[in-house]
């Protein structure tokens, strides 16, 4: 067969493959054209071309990796924004809850009383003004952004990885939520330690509140541990124990309630299908109405708070132990014994009502902001 005819036949075959396989057409056609040019160089090459198998290079690998990197970066950013939004909404409640949990001497009288939450808030406002209700909030935002950013981003990534190995979606969601909680807590714990100590301190009226660096220096200089950095990790092992049910239950229940809203209650909880188009394509999941997303987030907060509250209470007591006695290490066993002796089982749930009042709007705002930003950035 003449070499020129062989070249034309081979290039015609490449064009047909380009029409049938659009995803790999460019690479296949390029390979065929390269073989055709080799065939034109000598008769011995023609036989190789006639008997050769088509050379198909892997396609889409780089694109998929790049898309996942972009997805991870976007979920990192919007996760941090969602966390800061939620914490700002509940900052005053969080301040009062810490004072109740740690049995602050000036506010213990409000614990367990009717409307104790509001009476304590009013007392703080009268003495310190609005800034008193947000004391330690700047440190809270500095902590919560990396915490929430890493939490949401790692949850999405872990859910994809575990989906390949874990068949049950509920088990997958729980494991992904627990693991992402452990990762985010490990990264942000020292900042949380400073924030809790700032929220606990109640200086006399007219005395300015302690600043971040002075509180950090105070914690570092406490003689409880030989290495000052260890003081920033008081209660850290217990925190890891508590985040497993907290993170796992929160994501598990949120996924369950949103799935329920999209299926059984879709006629009232989900937006019409006609409104689901996003940038020219139809979304895989129906977007929930605002009230449904808020309800799902609030319910997940109730379940998560109930499952993890005893761990949180003991951890808070350990974190502020240095404020009472700088040389005290405050082991978890000693704190548990103290709580049990003073309040029994109910002692481990002091402030839980305030916890509910706090976590419902916090989780609702967090998941709502996160899901709406995902829609805005066209993420699923």
UniProtKB/TrEMBL annotation:
Subcellular location: Mitochondrion inner membrane
Protein name stated in the entry: Coenzyme A transporter
Organism of provenance: Coemansia thaxteri
Solcar repeat start and end residues: 70-161, 168-260, 288-376
BP terms from Gene Ontology: transmembrane transport
InterPro entries per the UniProt record, alphabetical: GDC-like (IPR002167), MCP (IPR002067), MCP_dom_sf (IPR023395), MCP_transmembrane (IPR018108)
Membrane topology of this protein: Multi-pass membrane protein
Gene3D superfamilies: Mitochondrial carrier domain (1.50.40.10)
Family affiliation: Belongs to the mitochondrial carrier (TC 2.A.29) family.
SUPFAM superfamilies reported for this sequence: Mitochondrial carrier
KW Transport (keyword) present: yes
């Amino acid at each position: 067969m003449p070499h020129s005819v062989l070249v034309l036949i081979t290039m015609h075959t490449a064009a047909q493959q380009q029409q049938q396989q659009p995803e790999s057409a460019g690479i296949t056609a390029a390979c065929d054209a390269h073989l055709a040019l080799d065939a034109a160089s000598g008769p011995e090459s023609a036989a190789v071309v006639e008997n050769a198998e088509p050379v198909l290079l892997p396609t889409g690998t780089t694109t998929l990796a790049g898309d996942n990197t972009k997805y991870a970066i976007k979920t990192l950013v919007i996760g941090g924004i969602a966390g800061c939004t939620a914490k700002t909404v509940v900052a005053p409640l969080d301040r009062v809850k810490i004072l109740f949990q740690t049995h602050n001497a000036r506010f213990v009288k409000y614990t367990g009383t009717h409307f104790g939450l509001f009476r304590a808030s009013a007392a703080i406002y009268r003495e310190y003004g609005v800034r008193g209700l947000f004391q330690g909030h700047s440190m809270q935002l500095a902590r919560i952004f990396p915490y929430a950013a890493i939490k949401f981003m790692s949850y999405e990534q872990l859910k994809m990885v575990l989906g390949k190995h874990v068949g049950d979606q509920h088990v997958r969601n729980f494991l992904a939520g627990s693991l992402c909680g452990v990762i985010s807590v490990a990264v942000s714990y020292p900042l949380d330690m400073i924030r809790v100590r700032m929220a606990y301190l109640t200086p006399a009226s007219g005395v300015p509140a302690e600043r971040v660096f002075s509180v950090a220096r105070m914690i570092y200089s406490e003689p409880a541990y030989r290495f000052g950095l260890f003081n920033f990790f008081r209660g850290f092992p217990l925190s890891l124990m508590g985040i497993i049910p907290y993170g796992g239950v929160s994501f598990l229940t949120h996924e369950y309630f949103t799935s329920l809203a999209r299926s059984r209650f879709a006629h009232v909880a989900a937006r019409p299908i006609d409104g689901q188009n996003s940038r020219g394509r139809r979304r895989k999941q129906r977007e929930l109405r605002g009230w449904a997303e808020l309800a799902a987030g609030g319910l997940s907060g109730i379940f998560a708070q109930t499952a993890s509250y005893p761990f949180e209470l003991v951890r808070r007591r350990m974190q502020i132990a240095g404020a009472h006695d700088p040389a005290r290490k405050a082991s978890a066993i000693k704190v548990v014994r103290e709580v049990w002796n003073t309040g029994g089982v109910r002692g481990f749930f002091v402030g839980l009502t305030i916890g509910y009042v706090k976590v419902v709007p916090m989780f609702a705002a967090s998941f709502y902001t996160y899901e709406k930003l995902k829609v805005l950035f066209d993420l699923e």
